[in-house]
Amino acid sequence: MTDNKMTEAKAKRPVLTTTAGSPWPNNQDSLTAGVRGSVLVQDYQLLEKLAHQNRERIPERTVHAKGWGARGKLHITHDIGRYTKAKVLKKGAVTPMLARFSTVAGELGAADAERDVRGFSLKFYTEEGNWDLVGNNTPIFFVRDGYKFPDFIHTQKRHPRTHLRSNTAMWDFWSLSPESLHQVTYLMGDRGLPTDPMHMNGYGSHTYSLWNEKGERYWVKFHFKTEQGVKFHTNEEAAEIIAGSRESFQEALFNTIESKKFPRWKFQIQIMPEKEAENLAFNPFDLTKVWYHADYPLIDVGYFELNHNVDDYFAEIEQAAFSPSNIVPGISWSPDKMLQARVFSYADAHRYRLGGNYEHIPVNQPRCPVHNYHRDGEMNTVGGNQLGGNVNAYYEPNSFNGAFEDKSAQEPPLRICGDAARYDHQGRGDDDYFQVRALFHVFDKGEKERLYNNTADAMKGVPDFIIERQLGHYAKVDKAYEQGVRAALKDKYNFGGKRNDL
Ligand code: NDP
User: Fold this and answer.
1) Choosing a second label site near 475 at 20 to 30 A (CA), which of 91, 174, 227, 285?
2) pLDDT digits (tens, 9 = 90+) for 125-166
3) 152 alpha carbon – ligand 1 mean position (Å)
4) Kind and range of the H or E run holding 448
5) Are 463 and 353 in a shared domain?
6) Residue 14 domain-assigned?
7) Left, alpha or beta for 425 (phi > 0: left; psi -120 to 50: alpha)?
8) Is the pLDDT at 10 greater than 70, yes or no?
9) 54 by DSSP, 3-state: which?
């Protein structure tokens, strides 16, 4: 480049400034006493630069730390107005959205192509506020009571002494918690290792509710079926991918959208009338269960498409705060115990990670007006404390036309009955097994073989007594399941003889 061209190019560049906006003359050389001399403490911009770098990282998510996301739009193509008054679900509605996919257990730097459940979080910026569906790529989960969630996550994280992941901890917990069997079977099957975010389904997983203009409530399950088809890797393929790149999901999602092959997911629901839940043979609010398609057929609602990569990963994905507490009129929760625990714990995780005013961060800001009486707090960046310039209406009730309750947003009353007690959450009889059996029978011969091998791979180094306990659960699902895993364990580690993996 000639000197003239360089001067011209520089003329178009913005001026470097301090964080307070003042032009800054030198971003290369410290202010020193003499050419070889010590740095002067008054070189405030040097101190500012180093101090800011020390604060670049925020706490990573305790779970779902490694994630990949993009923006897009939700399109409603079918009329489900008889179930819900939610404007976001009206036929013809198009709503901007953000999606974040993730692994559960790995830290921020973990490899993408690991066998793990994938988070499938969606934020819809509706005209009635943000609606977040914080689901997974599986329709079920490992536990059904929030009491067990922190312990379950401890088994997925590092051992206190070795600082390594512990197969023993995982299988000890799972074998003592047979409600996990359905999800463990799903995880060890082909869908436990998708090729990338585009080739997996998403599920709201929990039972939620819809309510309509007449005040009628329906229980609902949300499904998002990939239009790209489900694709998976074997353990061996994944090991090869990880050896070449730890970022295979990020690369795949970013490059696909960048090359304008926009991925789509079909949006479907299952519906159960409110009263029907009382007479069902199993608990429809149990997160370890699905509703069978034959009993509750999938109903088409629309689709979403991801068509825009974010411009800044930290600002728009790392700072994105999804919470099942974010619902809109016409959509609500259910008595699902895990959902109720998550309604608290997700919002609380964001208060810890991002601060009490985390919804002021642009990616989390609703696209509709926000008026409430929350005051102040750290990083309060939305002008006027949500009062809309009405400075006298900073408490409620007030006589100064402050924001007022909207009774039409009140969901219909929910009948609750029963004595307050700590009811044993563990399944009775066949309760923890019958749906696992149904899934086992969905798997073809090849997938069953892979299930046995993947399970045996994951049991490396686990003591006999824990493996035997888990095999006992498989036997209750289907003798062939138990025998298949036992044979794979013998093959890999000489299980039943002198073990070669201990
Ligand atoms: P169906 O027998 O009607 O259909 C089988 C379901 O299994 C389909 O949803 C299919 O998803 C899914 N599936 C296919 N291969 C796999 C796999 N390798 N791993 C996990 N899921 C797979 O389902 P039912 O409703 O009668 O339920 C039977 C079993 O299917 C359940 O116990 C549950 O484990 C599983 N399942 C059920 C779902 C539900 O919401 N009812 C959802 C997902 C799984 P797809 O159509 O996308 O290919």
Assistant:
1) 285
2) 999 999 999 999 999 999 999 999 999 999 999 999 999 999
3) 24
4) helix 445-458
5) no
6) no
7) alpha
8) no
9) helix
